[in-house]
Amino acid sequence: MTDTPWLDDACSLVDAFRAGTRSPKEELQATLDAIAASDLNCFSFLDPERALAAAERADLNKPFGGVPVGIKELDQVEGWPDTGASLVFKDRLATYTGESVRRFIEDGGAVPVGLTTASEFGGLNVSVTKLNGVTHNPWRRGRTAGGSSGGSAAAVAGGLVTIASGGDGGGSIRIPAGYCGLLGMKGTYGRISRGPVAFFRPGTVVLGCLARSVRDAARHFDVCAGVDPRDPWSLPNPGGWEAGLGRTELRGKRVAVLPSIAGVRLEPGVEERIRAAAKDLIELTGMVEVDIDLRLPNLAAQWAMGNLSTLLAELGPYWPRCAKDLTDEIALGTILAQSLYNLHLASVAEAQRVQANEAMATAFEQVDYIISATNPGPAFPAEATTSSPTETFIDRAKASPAARAAFRAVMATVRVVGGAFPRLSNALVDAVVEKVPDLVTMGGLTIISNIYGNPAVSIPAGTLDGLPIGMQVLARHHRDAELFDVALAYEREIGWPKVAPAVSGVAPSSV
């Protein structure tokens, strides 16, 4: 009888099923029992009956045959809640299954247990919502699991499931992977279908998974990548992701080590940890470090405001009456965007995008890979929406109904003035960023790969004060397989814990 869920990777669990040392039905029961006993608050919905039926008919010849998995609650599974992690849609049910999820379940043979928590509409890099409450980091309860795929990361690192789906529109796979000590791969834009109902904006989202090992993420690519006619930006799947692991000759590859890419301010100790991990990686692979000058605009604020158009399309007639039901940051951000976003700001964002693309292209003419930190620091308090302990004007704006009403009135005035003086909006956005830099610090290290569309992976790179630090590696477009091999080299020679110490009982190495 299996008492606890599998604590190694998903591929080894499949091997155990095939060897007969473990059964999908027993594994599922252990998973459900562990979820029921967990205080991480990382699942928002469970479907034990469907999962049991899937486990009983599991095809062990399939890549993830019989493996219990979590599905991010921003993904659709027909008949399951389709809330967007928002009170606004708390009673909505999905009328279709997303193609990537369908492939994971039907082609891969995975057993869907339920939905993992996320930030509201994927709009924040934490997993705190009015609908589901606070998701906790299994490495230390009371610390954030990141977002928006925070529930998936907490479930995988917390020993509840071996793999879970995720999505990355500005870092939402890599950020929680970094905070929870997991492998987080964002493929080249279009690598995995977002269809059906694939909005183009923000033009940055790549689906994927939160994984304990490189081979798990590679196998997920084998199953889920590929062209989908309902996502016209989806790419062909060359296949062989897992079978081809380790074939890249890394010796002689050129790499730049830029811990604070885009000029993001890192917390004490992070740069030293990243440089030490990068040094280990370079030495064990025979890569060559190269100094480059990469200057990138921090385009998180202007870009995010323009992308709220997709949210408004989803909210439709519910907006603005639904503002009270939204997470305060989402509601205030939408009001701020409505007040400040105009054609001039759109032109600034587009000019910044082109500037960033040119800078990245020039950098990749000089090097094969760029290494940076994934996050500015280790996981901060779970209830916080940013890593800053300092109260900002946005904190004051959401402090009470009266304060929120005053904020809306001020923004209405700004909207009128901005219409008469369009350049004022960008100046005001810059002023907000200057006064509240933490709004763009989170995600500032990761978003460039979403804007440019290149693949990037977060690799567990040790700990700081007992909490994981992620090392991010960026590569050129369509060099996803090379990034898997870079991560594999580090995994084989240095390694990382498959689950959090509280689950495994093994203390992390101190740094």
Q: How would you sum up the global shape?
A: globular
Using only C-alpha atoms, the radius of gyration works out to: 22 Å
* Estimated helix fraction: 25-40%
Mean pLDDT: 90
The secondary-structure class comes to alpha+beta
Characterize the main sheet. Answer: 8 strands, mixed
Q: Looking across the biggest beta sheet, what order are the strands in?
A: 8-10-9-14-15-13-11-12
Oligomer: single chain
Number of strands: 15
Poorly predicted parts = 409-422
N-to-C span:
38 Å
Please work out how many helical segments DSSP would assign. Answer: 18
Strand content: 5-15%
Write a structural description.
The protein has 511 residues and is an alpha+beta fold. It has helices at 10-19, 24-37, 48-56, 99-107, 150-157, 174-180, 214-224, 270-285, 300-315, 328-340, 343-366, 393-397, 401-420, 423-435, 438-441, 447-452, 480-493, 501-504, and strands spanning 43-46, 68-72, 111-116, 128-129, 133-134, 136-137, 140-144, 163-168, 183-186, 206-211, 254-257, 288-289, 369-373, 456-464, 467-475. Strand 14 (456-464) and strand 15 (467-475) form a beta hairpin. Helix 2 packs antiparallel against helix 3 (48-56).
